[in-house]
Amino acid sequence: NLPVVVIAGRPNVGKSTLFNRLVGRRQAIVSDMPGVTRDRKEGEALLRGRRVKLIDTAGLEEAAPDTLYGRMRASSESAVAMADLVLFCIDARSGITPADAHFASWLRRQNRPVLLIANKAEGQAGTNAALEAYSLGLGTPLALSAEHGEGIADLMGEIAERL
Ligand code: GDP
Ligand code: MG
């Protein structure tokens, strides 16, 4: 039974990009999982010698409740419930949005270990947002760029340390 790492956050923050980045080097099989959220994808990643099961929460468009918050929650509820660690992503370029804050406050109440990620922080981009992200009450944000591969090695180390 591999430890389960769930990637969560509002749409468009780069969750799937991060998922692909983390599973990529292992060419993990990514398959649709049956269940409430048919778009949810899972794969395996090797992080600092530790094998983990990674879940990319998606399928917000398919989930039933018709508000963004409802969809985020429906998509993430079952995944977060089985998470050994949640990677909660924000977009450092757009800053903290009301949806991020809302989702973060829901996530805090789930009592799962959370690692806060400020994505799209290539170069110096997003330094302010990363600082702002402290206000989400989910600990110290880790700034990285899933698309450019910056900060990924640090992230892998952080994940491995927490499992
Ligand atoms: P998701 O909806 O959270 O799964 O987000 P996606 O992974 O589909 O990414 C949404 C958009 O953000 C895409 O256009 C990505 O190319 C872009 N993106 C993802 N990661 C980064 C990053 O690190 N930097 C920048 N600048 N763009 C990114
Ligand atoms: Mg996605």
Automatic annotation (TrEMBL):
<comment type="subunit">
    <text>Associates with the 50S ribosomal subunit.</text>
</comment>
<feature type="binding site">
    <location>
        <begin position="9"/>
        <end position="16"/>
    </location>
    <ligand>
        <name>GTP 1</name>
    </ligand>
</feature>
<comment type="similarity">
    <text>Belongs to the TRAFAC class TrmE-Era-EngA-EngB-Septin-like GTPase superfamily. EngA (Der) GTPase family.</text>
</comment>
<feature type="binding site">
    <location>
        <begin position="56"/>
        <end position="60"/>
    </location>
    <ligand>
        <name>GTP 1</name>
    </ligand>
</feature>
<protein>
    <recommendedName>
        <fullName>GTPase Der</fullName>
    </recommendedName>
</protein>
<feature type="domain" description="EngA-type G">
    <location>
        <begin position="3"/>
        <end position="163"/>
    </location>
</feature>
<feature type="binding site">
    <location>
        <begin position="119"/>
        <end position="122"/>
    </location>
    <ligand>
        <name>GTP 1</name>
    </ligand>
</feature>
<comment type="function">
    <text>GTPase that plays an essential role in the late steps of ribosome biogenesis.</text>
</comment>
